[in-house]
Specification:
The structure holds 2 protein chains of 2 kinds.
Chain A lengths: L5 E7 L2 H18 L2 E7 L7 H5 L6 H30 L10 H28 L20 E7 L4 H10 L4 E6 L1
Antiparallel strand pairs in A: 1-3, 1-4, 2-3
Helix pairs in contact in A: 1-5, 3-4
Chain B lengths: L10 H11 L5 H27 L14 H12 L1 H12 L9 H23 L24 H23 L1 H10 L2 H11 L6 H34 L11 H27 L8 H32 L2 H12 L3 H13 L7 H4 L2 H28 L14 H24 L5 H37 L1
The chains are: A alpha+beta, B mainly alpha.
Chain lengths: 179, 465
Amino acid sequence: MRRKKHLLFATFEDFDKARDAVTELKMLDLKEMVVDEIELYSPIEHPEVEEILGEFHQPIQRFTFFGALTGALCAFLLVAAAGQAMFTVQPQGGKPVIPIPPAIVITYEGTILFGVLCTLAAFFIYAGLPRRMKKYSHYDQRVSEDHIAIEVTMLPEHTDKVRKAFENCGALEIREVTQ
Amino acid sequence: MSTYSMKDIEWAKINKDVLASLESPRALFWVVLAVCALLVLCGVAAEVYQYNEGLGVAPMDRPHFWQLYISNFVFWIGMSHSGTLLSAILLLTKADWRKPIYRFAEAMTLFSILTAAIFPVIHLGRVWNMYWVLPYPNERGIWPNFRSPLLWDAAAITTYATRSALFLSVGMSPALAICQDNARGWRKKLYTALSMGWMGRASEWMAFRKTYVLIACFLVPLAVSVHSIVASDFAMSIMPDWHITSFPPYFVAGALYSGCAAIITLFVMLRYLFKFEAYMTTEIMDKTAKLTFAIAMVWNFLNLGEYASIWYSNDMFEKEVLLQKFFGPYAPVVWGMLICATVAPFAMAFEKFRHNMWAMFWLSLVLQLGMWLERFQIVSPPLASNHEPWTWAVVWPGTVQLTLTAASFGWFTMLFLIFCKVFPSVSMYEVKEMVFHRRHASSRAEMEDIGKIKDEVVRSEEGLA
């Protein structure tokens, strides 16, 4: 049977308070190992979040690189295969079987197309999208407006400690959820 | 000049203002939409007539097999470059003033490509054979000819359209999540499906930003390649005035120029129709106008360079076409282009002019007219005085071609207005970011000023002591 997930979802007025809360939770975790997972929700991107939550491992550029490489190869092979096939049914005296300059153009477009598609695939994988919103009934719509939220997954016995940390840092509202 | 300082806008107000634009545009919005729909209907009627009667009614006959449809194709492809400029080049150069206006420029890119893609189909005459450009062999084992620039066009435009649609839809996910939180009925269902469950998690933002920058890096060379390939449609031929080495950069500069002019037109239109005065400020218009002016000068340089290289090459066929362009039957088109696209942009050198929204609106229309004439004078005059004098003939576009041209403007504007009515045309999260960073920058500057004053006071006290 799947263990139930216990979490607290706290909403803050601004990013500074949320940052203080995460720092305090990290300190608490260092001492007593209370937190399983921390997630920060914000209406805009805060690159400095990596300093407190740790670096995100999202090697999207590798997908881009290998996607582009695959695209280049596929496009060139397509033109080459078409050239070969055409040569057998429609011989063209004096002309190369696989013409390089036109092949470069198609290869170039293929590189970009596959590169972009693979980058998008990587985005969906690392952002965890698309997802069903039904599981996130505790999500506060104010986050999409001007609030910051922190979601902490932990064992039920640590709830009070985490709640206290949130309250100390000025959380506006704390929601407790068991999924 | 708008005195509204953008750093003072509250985040909640940004949401409120942009969401309000989805509900209640000005009454003129519906008038413009109706006119556009009417133009589209006229275009459909013209196309049905041409489909039944043949391309002769266009009229398209020897030697004018390429005419207004191809000019329009080049014009609309060029228009699509504005989105690239605003969403990719200015993103990579970290110009934050683009943030309130780049979303509609991206939408413009997509709809321009969709409009452009119609013209090769119309131009083909036998529209049912359009699928021949797809890369697969027919029953006799013959593949499409990959050596032809026309097929490169198909590959480039498909890539560009795919990328533009994906870039736009993914880029809108954070904004659609906001819409989803505030919508009801069919809109809520639509936004929920398109936002894909975006919640603004830190991991989502990190992946989003990386993806956006990576796609932007692809977008710049892609846009350059698309218009270079369109230029190759002409430059790869041996026609005088088409077989020119500088055609690809000339086309790219022209595309950016007409794209920028279109941004100005839509900027003023959206600002008025959707009441975006607080976001589409004079400051942003000023920067857009300066950018347009700079690109106009680049285009002018390349244009003059083209004339000079033809003149000094002393090729009799090339020279003949050039002289025919300036003094022949197409002279009004060429001189019209020079007045609209070379002389008129100098108005943007004046600050007072740049800060007048309606003056900029009319000027942008003049610039676009100039660029449209430019495309026409690229396509038609060389065909009228080519290598074979016995085929020389002047053919002007007829009612069918002109109707379809007008319909393309109606089609583009209609799609664009519907988009702006259904989706947020100002990127809410990027404007919030801009406000956030500007506010922090100004408070940092204030703190530095206070620090300096304190230091001076301490120093003067020490001096007194």
